[in-house]
Amino acid sequence: MGKTWRSSSQSPLFWSGQAFRLILSFRLPTRETWRCPGPGWGQSQAGGESGQPLDQESGAGESALLSVYAQLDFAHETWPAVLSGPLTLPAASGSSAPVTLTGLSLTTECKVNQDGCSYCACLSGYQWNASVCSHHDPCQTHLKHQPCGCLVFSPMEAGYCQLLPPVPATLSLNSWLQMPGSTLNLTLLTSQETTNMNWFLWRTGSPSPVLLWAGTRVSLTSSPGRAVLSIMNISHKWAGEYICCFEAQGFRWELQQVVRVPLRETDVTRLPDQLSISCATSPGFQLSCCIPRTHLGYMASWSPREGSEAALVHTADSQCFGLAVQHCPTADTTYTCDLQSPGLTPVRVAVSVTVIQDGDATCPEEASAVAWNVTKAGHVAQAPCPGNRTGMVKRACGPDGVWGPIHSGCTDTGLLALLQRVQLLRAGQGWPVTEVPQILAQLLEQVVVVASPSDLLALVHTMTVLAKVVADARIQLNYSGLEALLNTTDKVLDMDSGSLWTPARAQKPSVGSNLLLAVEMLARSLCPQDQPFSFVLPNVQLQTQLLGPTSPADYRVSFPTQPPLRAWIPRHSLAPLSRNGTNVSITSLVLQKLDHLLPSNYGPGLGDSLSVTPGLVLVISITAGGQVFNQGEVIMDFGDTDGSPHCVFWDHDLFQGKGGWSDAGCRVQAAGASPTTQCICQHLTAFSILMSGHTVPQNPTLELLSQMGLGASILALLLCLGVYRLVWRIVVRNKVAYLRHAALLNMVLCLLAADTCFLGASLLPPGPRSPLCLAAAFLCHFLYLATFFWMLAQALMLAHQLLFVFHQLSKHRMLSLMVLLGYLCPLGFAGVALGLYLPRGQYLRDGECWLDRKGGALYTFAGPVLAIVGVNGLVLTMAVLKLLRPSLSEGPQVERRQALLGVLKALLILTPIFGLTWGLGLATLLEDISVVPHYLFTVLNASQGVFILLFGCLTDRKVQEALRKRFCRAQPPTSTISLTTNEAYIPEQSKGRSQDAR
């Protein structure tokens, strides 16, 4: 009996006499043992193994498919006519009858390029086996997910595709339509043993599929005959064609399933999301709703659309449905963009349009970097970000029709795309080993485009997520990758503090801590083969050493920083790590200019923000056997550190994840007489030292003294007000006395309110977002400044009386000028400080309801105070000279003694008031001085109310006379001269007449 064979040509049409290879397959009866012909049939190594026995003795009544390989040579480009009909082949060894060939078809198609290499692709039903695939490059290297369909052969090689057996697996999913937020499950059931299994996702619009790995959203599980891919919290970014590639039966297989995910309202971008328009200036306008590209087809419609035209605009990664409204509506209107896809619930987003009517308050049109149209008061104007930036620029129109500050949400498109790429990588899209070096190289390119706080936040966030990817996937960075990281870090640390870091910290306080953590994690991932490694930049210095497993010596490292820094780890800390014969890798990293990046957060026992943190941080990490060790004794020397230092490290978990300085596990070791601080810590992390720029004694005695002194001051000021209530009409009978006591009374009121507010602020919970704390700081700032400005008003009044004896201003005009100076000027300083430093996050001191020193807000108080003290000093000097050397017109020489007594009394009154106390207080803030001035300042500051009561009120002769007249029935007459004015040199009669004239 003959056997029917079906044959297929294996090679391409190798024209001009080159050989065709045929694959011959046929059915054989059972109970016969067949063996494929051996190498004598022209078997090529590229075609796979041959000569394997096929024994079917156990399957009675069955047949088996057998493939036989042969090589036929043709001299022409066309098939010979003899191959068009049935062919009879001689009987093979062990066969009882000849075999008839009934069909012949091509299996491989090749193209030969100029260098003679053949690009050979298998036709339907045939494929290269896995062994051939592993030894030849694919035709398209970027499509490595594809099974072995097309390979490149050298001129001296040839190969043949093999007939594919039935697919040994099925791929199923729980639903092709996944709702956002649900979990996708893809299940592969196999009937054969599988190896080298990988999952890919080909997203819509992507040039090639990406490999999936076990990231934060991807779960990969496998068991015999079963493999499951799970995607948690799915979104439209996970829609596309899922591909499972694996090897079985000597072939590489590929199974696909398409998954679609509907859009949510949050996936739709409205441009703008609200609009305020004046029909007089803008008769028409345009609205748009944009969606990302997806497998689902969406149709959009706008309502209402009377007098409007809708249009579809495609961009690189999205499609926008625009509505051009040609006629302005007569009233406020809400426009709705309705997105529909067959079989799905419509997605609707609304855009409210407010029409400006006659008489409405508006903000005028303004042209700057962004064109601002006329906007109704109380609404927010929006404009798309200019240039190659993504986001919106917003500006509020105040209730009074005044434009507010511009709030930019613009981020560079390249930085935003890089951030989204690394976020998807951590979620599970992409192969970290190849993606991480590429992202690091792009970070170095993108760091130069950072121009706004949003850019800086996106860059730091990208580095943070990338560091987590490296840690999760346990990737080791090569030399070029780490070099790109360090260069990027150096440029980030060098960015401007005022325009970038300060507003970025105001938006996200933990941004500096996040940057430090990211650099720590990435720096310790250097590949051991690239060690030792040294790198020096202005703000970044790194040294790595690889210690052998045989009893490592002490680890020592030094950095030529300012202050100088040395560190070493004793051998007894390193010995346990190398007991298993593994190498120990130690990385030391120094970062500078961190003082304006990290928040002033201090853990228990470290005081408050009066501590000054140098911008230098040392990071040490130890890796052995692929594991990172955080415990071990490390000794550090920080040079040039006079003062009271604390050895600290940055704890990323403090203050609700914002990070803070802690001294747990660290101590200061005495270093003799040299200005060097030696720190010994029992763990490895980011180390530094805290220097007390203002050593404030933290003891209960000083705090109690301050509280008691403030209480006494408040009581004294209240008593002073009571005295003035009793004697006011008696002591203000002339202009000079009236102005002097009016100034003193306002000083009493301001200081009383300031001390009360300051005492109450200590009971409030501090925080940059606390309204009460913010109000208390503003009031204290204003009231203390008002106290000083009334001091200045009193001094200027004294100077006017001494210099312009015969050209005096009226009492009411003088008082008006003093009120303006005493209240309006300090209010202006306090308001400017609030508006300037609060948006930057530099107004309040961390942990207190008082002005921040580091940000500069405190200097809006210190500057005016120092200026007033200087002016008052000049006035005192002039007053002394004027009273000691009066002219002939100012009075007779016999009154010189009374003038000297008046100068002495004026000095006793004015010296404490004119800034002695607060001058000492400012010195304690700005200078590194001993503990004694802090005690003096506390006592004097708490006693200012007592000084005013004693020297400004009770020691005044007229006040004493008024009190005696009120509380004593009989009193001898006295004649006194007021030592606080220069009117003692004018005859009483003429003085009265002059006063009446005024």
Automatic annotation (TrEMBL):
Family assignment from sequence similarity: Belongs to the G-protein coupled receptor 2 family. Adhesion G-protein coupled receptor (ADGR) subfamily.
Membrane topology: Multi-pass membrane protein
Gene3D superfamilies xrefs: 2.60.220.50, GPCR, family 2, extracellular hormone receptor domain, Rhodopsin 7-helix transmembrane proteins
Disordered: annotated segments: 37-57
GO cellular component terms, semicolon-separated: membrane
GAIN-B domain sequence ranges: 531-697
Full protein name: Adhesion G protein-coupled receptor F3
